[in-house]
Amino acid sequence: MTALEFSCSIGKMAKSLKPFAVRLTKDVEDANDLLQETLLKAYINREKFAEGTNLKAWLFTIMKNTFITNYQRIVKRNTFIDNTNNLHYINSTNATTYNLAYSSFALEDINRALQLVDETYRTPFIMYFKGFKYHEIAEKLQIPIGTVKNRIHIARKELKDHLKVYAYQ
Fold this sequence. Notes:
Elements: H1 3-25, H2 28-44, H3 55-77, E1 79-81, E2 89-91, H4 101-116, H5 119-129, H6 134-141, H7 145-162
Antiparallel strand pairs: 1-2
Helix pairs in contact: 1-2, 1-3, 2-3, 4-7, 5-7, 6-7
């Protein structure tokens, strides 16, 4: 496989790697960085890819390992050594606790607001949210692609109206 063919192949896989990166990092910007780093590592190490094997699985493995390495680096950087006589390792982030109640309430409000949206708009919106492409939704619901886009837009608008409480001031 030539370098150009390899570049084209990993470029096609980039879209399917993005959701995995978001799941790992829980942040869109960090996910973009992870995706970029993964593609760079794949291109640099393209001679290590065995042609005929699963390129997608190889890229997912690179991404997972890159994430783990970066995570370990961050944990190591946030760990400091106590120079007292006890010589304990203290991780400074263990002192922080997070209350997940706020996210639970928000999720309940989102689900409640979603139920208030008309079924006509809710169905394409949920399908899009689950990862379906516009043309897949149009095919499945047997409606034009423009109608799908319009219904998703209306559903977003209605959800935004129902969830004004969460808008930034």
